[in-house]
Every structure is written in structure tokens, then in C-alpha cells.
Amino acid sequence: MPFEIPEDLHPDILGFAWLLGQWHGNGRGDYPTIEAFSFEQDIAFAHDGRPFLHYFSQTWITDESGERIRPGALETGFLRPGGPIDKAKGPVELLLTHPTGFVEIYFGEIDGPRLTLQTDAVVRTPTAKEYTAGQRMYGLVEGDLMYAYDMAAQGQSMQSHLWGQLKRV
Q1: 104: closest CA among 145, 152, 72, 148?
Q2: Helical ranges in 14-91 per DSSP H
Q3: How far apart (Å, rounded) are the C-alpha atoms in residues 5 and 149?
Q4: Rounded to an integer, what distance in angstroms lies between the CA atom of residue 123 and that of residue 102?
Q5: At 19, is the secondary structure helix, strand, or coil?
Q6: How far apart, in Å, do the first and last CA atoms of the chain sit?
Q7: Rounded to the nearest 5 degrees, what angle is found at the Cα of 163, between the Cα atoms of 12 and 121?
Q8: Segment 25-79, tens digit of pLDDT
Q9: How many whole angstroms separate alpha carbon 138 and alpha carbon 20?
Q10: What is the pLDDT of residue 1?
């Protein structure tokens, strides 16, 4: 699908332009404390002319044939430059909120069509499950949004948890 950089995109986030839009696809999840699963996902990266992107992700757990079984994870937040972005390379910040009782602050780097992040802080409500750290990587590969998410939770060390491939819609 052709993509055009919006005329009103703030110049400080031109390096994030490749993320803009609606994405849809599928992924897999696994972790030592749960059964492996498949999911369907919608992601949106939007802007309003200011120097950040609004991020929203919604998932549905799917069965072996790809049919939705039930709602999955939701998360929303903001992707911001963490300093000067020069030629699509530089520091970034990601702030995320989850309805399961977590707030995360990530620091990382954008390098062309690749974004790598790790948590600096995770804050949990008293009712949230134990979760201590995360790492995320997003990349544009042959026009698709690919990502991987590693986490440390439930007494486990940092390890692979989710991965997915989404197409621009």
C-alpha cells in the first residue's frame, strides 16, 4: 500500500513517519508461565501535528483456524523523540498504559525503519501481576511492520514473549 508523509507532521518526528497509519496482522505468544497462543492484532500510530505519535494496540486471542476466541491485550501510549533525531536516528521515549494495571516507560533508539526500546520503569497497581521489565523491537521489513517483545515477569528472567507481523491497511 502506498504511503505518503503527511504535510502537517511535526519536523521532530519525521523519522517516525514509517510507523504512521493503521496496521493489521497476526502473531504468536509464549512464556514459561502460560500456554503458547496465537493472536490477531490492530495497531494504530497517529499524530495531531505535535512532536509525538499516539500508539494504540488491540488484540484478540485466536484458535488454530484464526478465528477470534476472546479479547486479548490492549495498550495505549505515546512515542516521542528523546532528543534530536538526525537523519532518522536518535533517542526515543515510549510511554505505555495497560488496563491490567501497568504503566511502562521505555527508552531506546530509532535507526531508520528500526525502533529498539527497553523499560526504564514499570509501575504496577496492587492487583496487577508481577512484571518487572520489557524490551521491544519494531521494524519495517518489505513493507510489513514486524515486532518482538521480550519480558521479565512472574519470577522469570528476560525472554521472548510476543512476536508479530502486520500489514498497513
Answers
A1: 152
A2: none
A3: 27
A4: 6
A5: helix
A6: 7
A7: 55
A8: 999 999 999 999 999 999 999 999 999 999 999 999 999 999 999 999 999 999 9
A9: 13
A10: 57
C-alpha cell at 144: 510489513
The C-alpha atoms of residue 120 and residue 108 are separated, in whole angstroms, by 10
Gap between the Cα atoms of 70 and 76, Å rounded: 19
Q: Which residues does 81 contact at the CB level (< 8 Å), separation at least 6? A: 12, 13, 15, 51, 52, 90, 91, 92, 93
DSSP letter for 156, please: P
pLDDT at position 2 over 80? no
Return all residues near 147 (Cβ < 8 A) that are at least 6 apart. Answer: 27, 136, 137, 138, 139, 162, 163, 164, 166
Cell of 115: 525502533
Q: Please give the model's pTM, rounded to 2 decimal places.
A: 0.94
Helix, strand, coil share of the chain (percent; to 5): 5, 65, 30
* Side-chain-facing half-sphere of 103: CA atoms under 13 Å: 5
Contact 113, 3 (CB under 8 A): no
What does the buried/exposed string (b/e) look like for 94-107 if buried means 16 or more CB atoms within 10 Å of the residue's CB?
Answer: bbbebeeebebebe
